Amino acid sequence: MIDKLQKAAEHGQSLGATYVELRAEDRARTNIEYEDGRVRSISQRLEEGVSIRALAGGGWGFVSSANLSLKALKASVKAAYSLAKSAGKTRRDPVELAEVKPVKDKVKLKLARSPADVEPQEKIAYAEKVWKEAQRLDKRMSAITVRLRDGVGKRYIVTNEGTEIDMDIGHVHLWSWLTGKDDGKMTGARDEYGSTNKGWEYFEEEMPPEPYAEILTKRVQLLLKGATPKAGSFPCVFGGTIVGVLAHEALGHLAEADLTVQSAFAGKTGTEVAPKGTFMVDDGTYPDGFGTAKYDEEGVPTSKVEIIKDGVLHHLLTNREYAQKTGMPVSGNARAEDYRYAPIIRMRNTFFEKGDMPDEELFEGIDFGYLCMSVAGGQAGMNASFQCGVQEAFEIVNGEVGQSVTTLSISGIATEALLKIQGIGKDKFHMGPGRCGKGQEALTGDGGPLIRFDKGPITFGGKD
To answer: What number does CATH give the domain 2-225?
Structure first.
């Protein structure tokens, strides 16, 4: 495959393209949805194809194709070159790429059990065990949806600059929603787990069905017995997936260089955006992260990017084009869902780093507030506004964590909340998987330690 891609890249260069990139993929995917004791849907598909980007006349041309013959590859390269020439005529600012060192590498993925070798019935049995265990733990559990997704295969990246990468790719992913009902009250909770460097053994060794069912069930139980929250603004402590949402949705997107110009971070690079001691990073090298990879889809090595360094907005996430535009390093954040899409700037594993305060001290002096640990869905805007539901939250009363609460929502402006950080914990740390949409899906990780915020920038929705 590498040889064919090389010849196609050389063909594009002979036509006059200044840059030619071919990314071929070959993978098998499985999707299963299990609902209340039955399989709602199941599908398996083999995907094979190539994406081609050509830069000519200062413009991009992009073509994707499922035909991987050399003749078809050359024809697709020619089409991409033609599109680039046409696009270049309309651009006021010609596209230029930051220089990178060409890479030649083979990346192997060592899976104890490839998901492609696991029979569908075994995967269905996993979902069934989750459901039966949840019902065994608590008869009030009334419904469940379990979604299992996996994929395994190859990615090849070749450029006319000399990059040649042969890389194994794969993932396993689990998402569930469990519903409980008691005395006329109905509520539900979700959770998800996954890995991009382990196969089906991940669900056998790290997340067997019984402990996973227990996590879901306990979360629903907390909601069923939870008190009605108060509305208003209070001091609070965030942890778990709540901190992850703050890092990824509310702040991380602002640091994607192609979006920064229209975001709340515009023009703020080098300025203080949080108290000293605050560090927020995006790390493509994080061990076992759901967004971890050795190379991005431009063949650039991934890296650890210090977005906020000691309270200062320090670096943005870049691809080669935006590294050239901004003068910042190429960070390895060019990502594409699959060969059908051109790579764009995306996060990988985005999180706040641990601070220096013992976790128990974060609650001291709070007469009344909330501890928020798990998100139930939400949204954020480029002005740093965010709002989301909380499915695991507790009252903080006189410095102690107390009664769980239900149907709590939070909203605020993330950049204002940053300035109201009063302490960052040094003990607990959460990193979890996620799926990010930005016109195309990317597997990501997010999280961080416990963080305390002063009253003011975050509003809680509840009963007055």
So the answer is: 3.30.2290.10
Strand partners, 400: 397
Residue type, 155: R
> Which structure tokens are listed for 358?
């013992």
**pLDDT mean values, one per 10 residues, the chain (464 residues):** 98 98 97 97 96 97 98 98 95 95 97 96 98 98 98 98 98 98 94 96 96 97 95 97 95 96 94 98 97 98 98 98 97 98 98 98 98 92 93 97 95 96 97 93 97 97 66
User: In Å, how far are 109, 209, 266 from 202, measured between CA atoms?
Assistant: 14, 11, 41
Q: Cα(161)–Cα(9) distance, rounded to whole angstroms?
A: 9
Contact 320, 97 (CB under 8 A): yes
CA pair distance 256, 280, nearest whole angstrom: 14
The residue ranges of DSSP E strands in 251-343, in sequence order, are: 280-283, 304-309, 312-313, 334-335
Residue 399's CB is within 10 A of a number of other CB atoms, namely 14
Residue at 243: amino acid letter: V
Assess contact for 429 and 449: CB atoms under 8 A: yes
Q: How far apart are CA 409 and CA 389, in angstroms?
A: 4
Contact 171, 95 (CB under 8 A): no
Contact predicate 282/348, CB 8 Å: yes
Domain ranges within the chain, ordered by starting residue: 2-225, 232-461
Q: Is this model's pTM higher than 0.90 or not?
A: yes
| Dihedral, 322, 442, 63, 74 alpha carbons, nearest 10 | 100
Q: Following CA atoms 261, 264, 269, 271 in sequence, which dihedral angle do they give, to the nearest 10 degrees?
A: 160
Residue 290 sits at φ, ψ, to 5 deg, of -70, -20
Q: Are strands 185-195 and 59-65 parallel, antiparallel or unpaired?
A: unpaired
| Residue 231, number of CB atoms within 10 A of its CB | 14
